[in-house]
Specification:
eight-stranded parallel β-barrel, 362 residues, two-stranded parallel sheet, alpha/beta, 11 strands, 38% helix
Length: 362
């Protein structure tokens, strides 16, 4: 059998070695497309850091957030007991795979253990004791992951949903008052002076709530509190936010000299509802072509805005990995399936994915 001429053999090698455009795209992840702009993160639970979801995370993302494992209730259920296991495993997974970690969250009105608000006699604690317990909690949690978690959502959702009110009513507010927010940031800074500290909230782009969030942020910054950024949760839908509302919000927050993180991004295919309810018998939860197209358009729009303001936005994090599981499957409508992410139930890229990584219009 005659051997091929050298130049033909070389040409064959070149053809075999050169990957196709489709192959190149398959090898790139969200983190690679946005490498020169900002990290792309995802919220994880214990299941997500194993098996096929873990493989997807390593392919697509370079930042992770614990969905629930670092919240006060799960991690500190009793005064003298911490549940470090799941939080430790998430941080270990991140370290092993060169992923950055955002910590979530230190002070919140929900998922707070009841013990923290009562004394040894079962009576409501004093302001002094509650501040002491808060400091001990923050020093323990932030201190454990010092140097491993680069940013923390320190205070979460402190603004009331009622436009006529300022701060949300809670046991923290009842016992300590507004001072609790400054103290939380100070304790976090004490525990890890190098960590970036954020205030985090939803509907933060809606003008009326935006102004109340700005009021709190100004109170903190003008008092010299160590706060470095604001987290816009990004629990949005195919119906909102508008381009105007989102751009104005980014500009207003950035004017305070704060970094912006998009901390909990998902794109519901249903209108916003606040009150919980059961799915109605006549209510469809099919992911129709019409809903899919609206979602594609909305993802394309918001990521175009993120790129436009990349000098201020220093992280974008999705809330959950794929449509296989989303917290929106049960909230606010129990039993209704949602499809709010860029990967489908089989962990395949949806059409919206390709609009998110298409920079041609920029």
């Amino acid at each position: 059998m005659k051997s091929l001429p050298y130049f033909l053999l070389s040409l064959c090698c070149i053809i075999v070695a050169e990957p196709s455009l489709a192959q190149q795209q398959q090898e790139l992840g969200l983190k690679d497309y946005y490498h020169n702009l900002f990290p792309i993160g995802v919220a994880v639970n214990g299941r997500a850091i194993k098996g096929d979801e873990a493989a997807l995370i390593k392919q697509e993302f370079n930042s992770i957030t614990a969905e629930n494992a670092m919240k006060m209730g799960p991690i500190h259920p009793e005064e003298n007991r911490y549940n470090w296991g799941l939080a430790d495993s998430i941080v270990h997974f991140a370290s092993a795979n060169n992923l950055r970690v955002r910590g979530h969250t230190l002070l919140w009105h929900q998922q707070t253990p009841k013990w923290i608000f009562v004394d040894e006699n079962g009576d409501q604690v004093s302001k002094e004791l509650l501040l002491k317990r808060l400091r001990e909690h923050i020093l323990a949690v932030v201190g454990r992951y010092k140097g491993k978690i680069y940013a923390w959502d320190v205070v979460n959702e402190a603004i009331d949903d009622n436009p006529e009110k300022f701060l949300r009513e809670s046991k923290w507010m009842e016992i300590i008052g507004e001072e609790v927010f400054a103290r939380a940031f100070e304790y976090a800074h004490e525990a890890d002076p190098d960590a970036l500290l954020f205030y985090n909230d939803y509907n933060s782009e809606r003008p009326e709530k935006r102004e109340r969030i700005l009021r709190l942020l100004k109170n903190l910054t003008e008092a010299g509190v160590p706060i470095h950024g604001v987290g816009l949760q990004g629990h949005w839908s195919i119906f909102e936010p508008s381009e105007t509302d989102l751009e104005e919000a980014i500009e207003r927050y950035a004017s305070l000299g704060l970094q912006l993180h998009i901390t909990e991004l998902d794109m519901s295919v249903y209108p916003w509802e606040k009150e919980r309810r059961q799915k109605r018998a006549d209510e469809s939860d099919a992911y129709t072509p019409e809903l899919e197209q609206k979602q594609i358009d909305q993802f394309e729009k918001v990521f175009g805005i993120f790129r436009k303001y990349a000098e201020h936005i220093t992280n974008v994090t999705f809330w959950n990995v794929s449509d296989r599981y989303s917290w929106l499957d049960h909230y606010p409508v129990h039993g209704r399936k949602n499809y709010p992410l860029l990967f489908d139930q089989n962990l395949q890229r949806k059409k919206a994915y390709w609009k998110v990584v298409d920079f041609k219009k920029d």
